[in-house]
């Protein structure tokens, strides 16, 4: 009587992700309680030689019970050269605050960021000049939220006729752009640049801060701007 054939278990197939699993676990642990987008982790391990895909990476991250946030997709409808949108974001408060000036071109979605330790008018103007230099030109209009350094009174003269900060108004005349305000409660205008502030926080600042924190390094203005310019060139403006 012949015996039934014996089956031996197949040897485990090595995954392209295997040698990076420990790094990913530690990276996520170091970032806690912040969450690092899977796309950021993918960039980091690709710099180390990873050649696998996103599906297996997302699956492994999900197995660690860390929900992943998607990087935002932003669309604009303005024609070339017409509009730049500007906003401030605060990355850190306290004795050593860290703010970020964010500017986005409406048509190309090209992004510029600059970190500062304050949001005064003179700082705002300097950031504008640096953004125009970075973009290689001045748009016809710049869209703002209700910044105190931009607008003194909305609808001061009539609906849509605002009283702007005199220094900003003069700066606009000097550079050749018109200041505009986002329409209240209109997410399709105000929300665009706000999403880019969030994108900068999630895709750049938190990954940088949590990578340097285990080494006892605090992200200051100089460090953030040095790394930020590289991120703009290598990541943000490659979208």
List keywords for this structure.
239 residues, nucleic acid binding, alpha/beta, Nucleotidyltransferase, domain 5, two-stranded antiparallel ribbon, 2 domains, IS21-like element IS100 family transposase, Integrase_cat-core
Describe this structure in words.
The chain has helices at 21-31, 38-47, 54-63, 121-135, 166-175, 187-212, 221-234; strands at residues 83-92, 98-105, 111-116, 141-144, 151-158, 161-164, 178-181. The strands form two sheets. Strands 3-2-1-4-7 form a five-stranded mixed β-sheet, sandwiched between helices. The chain folds into two domains: 15-70; 72-239, Ribonuclease H-like superfamily/Ribonuclease H (Nucleotidyltransferase, domain 5, 2-Layer Sandwich), CATH 3.30.420.10. A hairpin with a 5-residue loop joins strand 1 (83-92) and strand 2 (98-105). It contains seven helices and seven strands. The model is unreliable at 70-77 (pLDDT under 50).
Write the layout of secondary structure elements.
Blueprint: H1 21-31, H2 38-47, H3 54-63, E1 83-92, E2 98-105, E3 111-116, H4 121-135, E4 141-144, E5 151-158, E6 161-164, H5 166-175, E7 178-181, H6 187-212, H7 221-234
Parallel strand pairs: 1-4, 4-7
Antiparallel strand pairs: 1-2, 2-3, 5-6
């Amino acid at each position: 009587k012949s015996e039934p054939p014996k089956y031996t278990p197949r040897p485990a197939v090595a995954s392209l992700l295997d040698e990076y699993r420990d790094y990913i676990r530690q990276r996520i642990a170091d970032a806690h309680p912040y969450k690092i987008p899977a796309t950021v982790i993918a960039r980091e391990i690709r710099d180390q030689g990873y050649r696998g895909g996103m599906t297996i990476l997302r699956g492994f991250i999900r197995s660690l019970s860390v929900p992943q946030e998607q990087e935002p997709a932003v669309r604009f409808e303005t024609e070339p050269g017409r509009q730049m949108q500007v906003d401030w974001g605060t990355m850190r408060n306290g004795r050593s605050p860290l703010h970020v000036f964010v500017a986005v071109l409406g048509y190309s979605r090209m992004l510029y960021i600059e970190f500062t330790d304050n949001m005064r008018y003179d700082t705002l103007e300097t950031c504008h000049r640096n953004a125009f230099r970075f973009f290689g030109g001045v748009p016809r209009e710049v869209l703002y939220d209700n910044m105190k350094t931009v607008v003194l009174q909305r609808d001061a003269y009539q609906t849509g006729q605002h009283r702007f900060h005199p220094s900003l108004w003069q700066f606009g005349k000097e550079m050749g752009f018109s200041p505009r305000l986002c329409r209240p409660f209109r997410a399709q205008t105000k929300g665009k640049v706000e999403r880019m502030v969030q994108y900068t926080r999630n895709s750049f600042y938190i990954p940088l801060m949590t990578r340097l924190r285990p080494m006892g390094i605090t992200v200051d203005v100089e460090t953030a701007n040095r790394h930020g310019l590289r991120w703009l060139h290598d990541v943000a403006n490659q979208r």
